[in-house]
Amino acid sequence: MDVTEELQVIDAVLKGDVDRYEALVNRYQKPIINFIFRMVGNYEDATELAQDVFIKSYVSLAGFNRQYRFSTWLFRIATNRTIDFLRKRKVAVVSMEGDYEDYTPQYKSNGSSPLETLEDGRLKTLLGDAIQQLPSEYREVIVLYHVTEISYEEIAEITDLPLGTVKNRIFRARKMLKKILEGEI
Amino acid sequence: MKECKGLKDYLTDAMEGQEKRHFEAHLATCKGCALAVKEDRAITEALCDVPKVNAPAHFVITVMREVAARRRSRLAWGVYGAAVLLVAALVGVLLGGNVTVVAGQATVLVRSLADFGTSLYTVVHNISAVLFGALPMGRMAPGFAGGAFLALCFVFYKTAFAISSDRR
């Protein structure tokens, strides 16, 4: 479904053809659930929040700004809803701006080097756990860029951050992940 | 270890053309940068392959059911809103020709509704006159209007209830 088709679906939904909304849910359910899952670290919470996101999107559809892509708008709702959830869950979020070099990973090494785990495929799973240890502002951009494969420019629109800040955070987040996985890949 | 200038730009695709070729030449001579690039690429590749989860089997159905319920709820509120407007209009009908006296101190909104009611009353009266000949409405007008009002309220209530209670 391209951007034009998405706009046609949105118009139809706004005119009362609610069933057409299903096409948008089908198209974005997986990326939204994966984004939220990597942010909150719990599948049940992720699916529940994703449902909220799609319902909120439907309810607010009349306010959709056509200068953005629908995906940008949807992910903006998802990031706001997820951050709100994380705040309510009182997850300790420590700002890592400027001091990531001193970041102490919570990840316990099993003795093998990350390169070895990469070779046996375990690094991908370990990396999933390591993402959970990132501060939320870094986790948000790294998941959007690498897991849901959204461009730097779109992430900047979703998060309302300057492009340079987005790139800087992604760069720093990867360095943090390397440190968490005890480096030396 | 201190990073060389340009490493971050190179790794975040912020470098192009000659600047990029220049940095790539630098990588051949700087072991620190070469290692940093290698490590970053390994992390990047692994990140792209982080296991993905699937949506639950009934995710779309659940969302669409809730969306449909929201729509019905909106429609019900629309019906309630229309009912309120109708009640206001019928109040105007009941007040009939005494609008000016009764609503003397009323707000502009009430006056508008009352005027609307009066117009409606006139229309109903004229139609009634055509349909029933020279039926003398006179004192019976409030009775007719009241009966119509209660009947319409009942219809709106049943409709709104039927729509809003259709949630599963």
Topology:
The complex is a heterodimer of chains A (185) and B (168).
Chain A: H1 3-14, H2 21-40, H3 43-59, H4 70-88, H5 114-119, H6 122-132, H7 136-147, H8 152-159, H9 163-180
Helix pairs in contact in A: 2-3, 2-4, 2-7, 3-4, 4-8, 7-9, 8-9
Chain B: H1 7-11, H2 17-27, H3 31-48, H4 59-95, H5 99-102, H6 108-132, H7 141-164
Helix pairs in contact in B: 4-6, 4-7
Describe the structure.
The complex is a heterodimer of chains A (185) and B (168). By secondary structure, chain A is mainly alpha-helical. Chain A folds into two domains: 3-88, Rna Polymerase Sigma Factor, Chain: A (Orthogonal Bundle); 100-180, Arc Repressor Mutant, subunit A, CATH 1.10.10. Helix content of chain A is 66%, strand content 0%. Chain A contains nine helices and no strands. Chain A is globular, with a radius of gyration of 18 Å. The termini of chain A are far apart. Mean pLDDT of chain A is 82; it is low at 92-117. Chain B folds into two domains: 7-48, no CATH class; 59-164, no CATH class. Chain B is an all-alpha fold and 168 residues long. Chain B has seven helices and no strands. In chain B, helix 4 (59-95) packs across helix 6. Chain B starts with 6 loop residues before the first helix and ends with a helix. The A-B interface holds A 18-19, 21-22, 25-26, 29-30, 33-34, 37-38, 43, 46-47, 50-51, 54-55, 58-59, 114-115, 118, 123-125, 127-128, 131, 142, 146-147, 149, 152, 167-168, 170-171, 174-175, 177-178, 181, 183-185 and B 8, 11-14, 38-40, 42-44, 46-56, 59-60, 62-64, 66-68, 70-71.
